[in-house]
Amino acid sequence: MGSKSVDEVLDAAAGVHCSALRLDGPNVQFSASSEEEPTTSGLENGHQEPFVIGVAGGASSGKSTVCKMIIDQLRDQRVVAVTQESFYYGLTDEELVHVHDYNFDHPDAFHTELLLSCMQNLKHGKAVDIPNYNFKTYKSVPNARKVNPSDVIILEGILVFHDSRLRDLMNMKIFVDTDADVRLTRRIRRDTIDKGRDIKAVLDQYSKFVKPAFEDFILPTKKYADIIIPRGGDNDVAIDLIVQHIRTKLGQHDLCKIHPNLYVIQTTYQIRGMHTIIRDAATATHDFIFYADRLIRLVVEHGLGHLPFQEKQVITPTGSVYTGVEFSKRLCGVSVIRSGESMENALRACCKGIKIGKILIHREGDNGQQLIYQNLPKDIANRHVLLLDPILGTGNSAVQAISLLLKKGVQEANIIFLNLISAPQGVHVTDTLEQMIISHRRHSFVTIKIVSGSCDMKPWLRRILQFLRNLYQHSKL
Ligand SMILES: Nc1ncnc2c1ncn2[C@@H]1O[C@H](COP(=O)(O)OP(=O)(O)O)[C@@H](O)[C@H]1O
Ligand SMILES: Nc1ccn([C@@H]2O[C@H](COP(=O)(O)O)[C@@H](O)[C@H]2O)c(=O)n1
Ligand SMILES: [Mg+2]
């Protein structure tokens, strides 16, 4: 560990050159921006990426019916439906003469490039003009319908899972799986009654194109589905579960969809109010301390909620048995010096007598070389660790700290990393660290706020350090 003692190094860190969060090192990769302060999350600005649902399945399986049911249940959300049918190529005059030989169930019947570009624009929050396809004239009218961006976009059609680029845009893929006889019966009814077609032509088309295309192109895409709905619109339970899932996802930050081990505490006006105070440069230090501490307690409480519990029975004062839970006792905190120390008080307040270790990532000179000093509980390998650092910026110090804990034998799944403010880069860097991938279960992150990627957290770090100094003064009084 070098010539200096842990205490010497920890003391020295009380100076002004703290490098717990390296903002000037080689790993700083925030996108070029002159912004000094973190911007608010996309969620709060109303620019959250829409949740895209793909609904595939054979013709007349009930895709449109299922979509309508989902839309009806999500009536308090902004939902827009796009159907692949709008992207059928119009038939040329020559093709029209031989319409009975035209395969409407083949992937080439659709203008997939146009559909893809429309979906990409919608996913990025841009309005699009989509064509209108006329089933009677077999003609397509370009730019016939304006589709505005929404919170939820449903793309429905027999072959919406065929193109991998379209699939990649989808957050949820549903396959409506309805018996072939039912599909054929519905098709006959629909094409003869609604479309006024001749029954012989309908049956010929079915055996010549519809059935083979189902087997060759549609059924093979069932494997891409996240959810398969037997009986389509008759399956109320499946629709309810889907709607519930969509609601949960809509309430989450986009990053949670990518990193399932990231927990962003659901915001309330109370939380936003406290954030507003501590982000205001004009806020007095004692208010900053008070509200930062309240927010930190929230993160700590949420973090504790991720610890494993075991069942415990107690006898109540009335003599009855109450079956409750008790949480893991083998717990410790580890703060990344110095900013992490600002979270220690909150942790002590929530967990009486908890052991708290320390890690210091100390930058030597300007060559980017780092030394790590640590003072950790000897039996840390057997403990769950609440790792404390209020700001996750580049992810550099978090990576060092988590790597050290893993080297000490802590199981990755037993690490809960607690932050007040996290930048997407930090989450990404920390979550994709190679030596961590050996673990079956990833460590968790609990954070109160995700800021945009283009931010410089230096002013924040200064504030947190000031916070620490004040805490230290308070504790001396
Ligand atoms: N569960 C159901 N019970 C009875 N009829 C249904 C059911 N689901 C759909 N249909 C009918 O079957 C036909 C095809 O359904 P639709 O939802 O349009 O299928 P798709 O969009 O897959 O072609 C429609 O006439 C619809 O009213
Ligand atoms: N001019 C057309 C275009 C398409 N079809 C058939 O529609 C089916 C797809 O629509 P769903 O609502 O059932 O998914 C497909 O099987 C095509 O054969 C058509 O008959 N005429
Ligand atoms: Mg349909």
In short:
InterPro entries: P-loop_NTPase, PRK/URK, PRTase-like, PRTase_dom, Uridine_kinase-like. The chain is an alpha/beta fold.
Secondary structure: elements and pairs:
Elements: H1 6-12, H2 42-45, E1 51-57, H3 63-73, E2 79-83, H4 93-97, H5 112-123, E3 128-133, E4 140-147, E5 152-156, H6 164-168, E6 172-177, H7 180-194, H8 199-218, E7 227-230, H9 236-250, H10 254-258, E8 262-264, H11 269-279, H12 285-304, E9 309-315, E10 321-327, E11 331-337, H13 344-350, E12 355-363, E13 370-375, E14 384-388, E15 391-392, H14 396-407, E16 415-422, H15 424-431, E17 444-450, H16 458-476
Helix pairs in contact: 3-9, 7-8, 11-12, 12-13, 12-16
Features:
alpha/beta, disordered N terminus, binds the ligand Nc1ccn([C@@H]2O[C@H](COP(=O)(O)O)[C@@H](O)[C@H]2O)c(=O)n1, 5-stranded parallel β-sheet, 21% strand, binds adenosine-5'-diphosphate, allosteric enzyme, 477 residues, Rossmann fold, 8-stranded mixed β-sheet, 16 helices, binds magnesium ion
Largest beta-sheet details: 8 strands, mixed
Low-pLDDT segments: 1-47, 434-441
Query: How many independent structural domains?
Result: 2
Q: Name the CATH architecture of the largest domain.
A: 3-Layer(aba) Sandwich
Strand tally is 17
| CATH class descriptor of the largest domain | Alpha Beta
Distance between the termini: 35 Å
Report the C-alpha radius of gyration, rounded. 29 Å
What is the beta-strand fraction? Answer: 15-25%
Task: State the helical fraction.
Answer: 25-40%
Q: Name the structural class.
A: alpha/beta
Catalogue the ligands: adenosine-5'-diphosphate, the ligand Nc1ccn([C@@H]2O[C@H](COP(=O)(O)O)[C@@H](O)[C@H]2O)c(=O)n1, magnesium ion
Count every helix, treating DSSP H or I runs of 4 or more residues as helices.
16
Q: Globular, elongated, flat, extended or rod-shaped: what is the shape?
A: elongated
Mean pLDDT: 81
Which fold name fills CATH's third level, the topology of the largest domain?
Rossmann fold
Pfam families: PRK, UPRTase
Domain Phosphoribosyltransferase: 267-429
Enzyme class: transferase
Protein name: Uridine kinase
